[in-house]
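The records we work with from here on pair a chain with its fold. These numbers are not coordinates but entries in a learned vocabulary of local backbone shapes. To see the layout at work, look at the sequence and tokens printed below.
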Amino acid sequence: MKKKKVNLRDLKPNSEEQHSNDDGHNHSGNSSNIKAYVPAIISFSMLIIGIGLDYFDVAFFKDWIRIAWYGIAYVPVGFPVVKEGWESIKKGDVFTEFFLMSIATIGAFIIGEYPEGVAVMLFYAVGELFQNAAVNRAKGNIKALLDVRPNEALVYRNNDYISVSPETVEIGEKVQVRVGEKIPLDGILLSDKGSFNTAALTGESKPDTIVKGEKVFAGSINLDGVIEIETTKEFKDSSIARILDMVQNATARKSKTELFIRKFARIYTPIVVFLAIGVTLLPYFFVDDYVFRDWLYRALIFLVISCPCALVISIPLGYFGGLGAASKNGILFKGASFLDAMTKINTLVMDKTGTVTKGVFKIKEVKAIDWDETEFMKYLMAMEEQSTHPIAKAILEYKAEGSDYEASEVSEIAGKGLKGIVNGKTVLVGNKALMIANNIEVPNETENIVESIVLVTINGKFAGYVVIADELKDDAKETIINLQKVGIENIMMLSGDKDSITQQVARELNIKQAKGGLLPEDKLNEVEILKQNPDNKIAFIGDGINDAPVLAASDVGIAMGGLGSDVAIETADVIIQTDQPSKVVKAIKISRSTRKIVWQNIILAFGVKVIVLILGAGGLATMWEAVFADVGVALLAILNAVRLQRMTWSD
């Protein structure tokens, strides 16, 4: 069974035009859409008039006039199909739906069933129009992603900004972006700050504010003022280019269900053609009152019913709709096969840092002893201003009121901390080893703190401490709860961070299994142990950098890819663009909804066809029932698949 493929590459805008012609059926612009319906409207009008003339037995509407009338009504919708069938035969592909529809309708004319011959082809043509409309609708969400492909870049060359294709811009060049324009390439912001709409890339509608020196990504829309960026990648290596390439080729990885149906259709179609010949000729040897015309009519009905259009159209459309719905929600599947695989997942293994935590240090607790907290923090911040350590950066985010203190004579004590003078007082800032070296007694309560801790001494007396920890993502707890609700009971956390910290995070999230202090090969070994049980279908979710081996080894590798993680895009099967772990739950729900709709379509198509095939072979079904079993069921299946575009899934 041969259908025209929906090719995502048809959606790819080039540098000269914003729209594509797709596969010949789908056109941009209202005038093209109207033209597509003209042949069907002409045939329908002539068919209705002809049936009316037949009903009222108009005298002149007889013989060759009647044949010519229905023949003309047939041509607008029938000729393209007959032509396509002939072209397929010349290429050696005989048993296509075009061939089936052609011989069924021409056969109807041969036996004098002119209205039915026109009606079958008309409904088939209308079904094709509905199919194209459905495909266009399914393409919509993915096309929104592809439309973020920038078409031009204003590059500073020869003391002026000139408009060039993004593909010609080199690394390190300065690019200007005006309000409302798309960022053409990945780069670093040179302007003081900018506000960007990244909705088409991440699915998030909230504008993203970027400050000077931070990364900006191709495809983001500049919302506030003229900005300048310095490019850090060529266009072909930019995050958006890689994402586009991945999405455009997503349908290349067919699901097992889709592959089976296509193979089945190739075998099934020639079988029904020979069965139709048998229905026509074999009764001659077994039936006393054999009438060739009656059995030929039954065979033609059998042929019309046998077209597996509903299956071949609606199943890929169902998966395509699932891919589109996922991309709309900031989730990229690399193919329909991973939509299927996601439905079978019962074990989720996750990384900690950057997956359920934000991967940045934040102050968790400030404990000042015999000092006002604000005053205590001023001393600490004055010291940390002299350090470039990530922990120092976290401490400096503390907002203290009043004038800032300044530190002098600051010296670094290797592996222990800092020593200096603040406001005339000697200050020590560091770990327990620094305190011991200076004979400072540290409270016992600090022994039970598993996170990073900064101890402070002022003028030889212990003044307090600050606990620094990686923050949980806002939706981390909700994610674990919802994963359990959707049936993922076996959840395990593996981390390269200290085991004590990993265990504490696991307790906060109510994860029963957790291991810390692991190297990438240790994580891989843990997953391999889980895979020894064939009942375990494993998804691994990580940051896509250190976790590449585990992402590749899992049944489904899910990367918290954000927009800038090239390794995530390369390695993972599914990419969460927003860095929200809750999107994993949504990905599971979208996958299950897609599979449910695909199987509904399979059962509907097979069920109706089997019933009408039996009725047709027994002479109990007319060509009208055959039309419903073919085109009608296909339309119902398509409409069912399109439901994916309207569904919403909570995280």
